[in-house]
Amino acid sequence: MAGGMALLWWWQGRLERSQDEPIRAAANRYRIDPALIKAIVWKESRFHPEARGRVGELGLMQLREDAAFEWADAERVEGFGHTHCLDPRTNTMAGTFYLVRLLKRYVRTDDPVPYALADYNAGRANVLKWIRGEASTNSRVFIEGIGFPSTREYVKGVMQRRQRYEGQLGPVPGAK
Predict the structure, then answer these.
(1) Domain ranges in the chain?
(2) pLDDT tens-digit series, residues 88-127
(3) Is the dihedral of CA 24, 26, 30, 34 positive or negative?
């Protein structure tokens, strides 16, 4: 039994480190904390680059087609197709680009991360419903007021996992 647990622990650690290079590259490119990207990858796909979602999301960060094409257009990627998001490097670049855009939406809050994560998970329209009153600037109040329990748990889970990954991928100059 102990040997099986050790093997599982080793395999899980190896899987968690398997995407560090593309995560680090995306973090450097977009100047964002790699621990945040890694936590999203963990929550969205458990580090499986071939992951597919129920409504067409692809890859490590479970990108929808419209978000992927926003990145490809902004970066002038020729011949891009949504299935290119099954490549870990492409996926983390596009997903991180999208995440940075979401973070910029909420710069007038005490911490834009929970707002951006809720937007990433449930969409802008839902976040706009949840940012009434004190929740419009106070992230703690916002998190507790998230109307979907699954999105509230998503935000909390990613933020907890981010703490676990802090410092694992090294510093990113100018990271947010």
Answers:
(1) 19-165
(2) 999 999 999 999 999 999 999 999 999 999 999 999 999 9
(3) negative
The burial class, CB within 10 Å (0-12 / 13-18 / 19+), for 11 is exposed
Q: Which residues are catalytic?
A: 44
Q: What CA–CA distance (Å, rounded) separates 133 from 109?
A: 12
How far apart CA 36 and CA 11 sit, in angstroms, is 22
pTM for the model: 0.90
Q: Position of tokens 């600037």?
A: 137
Cα-based distances in Å from 16 to 2, 40, 130, 170? 21, 12, 33, 15
Rounded Cα distance, 38 and 169, in Å: 9
Q: Which two tokens stand for residue 92?
A: 């983390």
CATH number of the domain at 19-165, please? 1.10.530.10
Task: Give 43's Cβ-side CA count (13 Å radius).
Answer: 25
- If you count them, how many residues does the chain have? 176
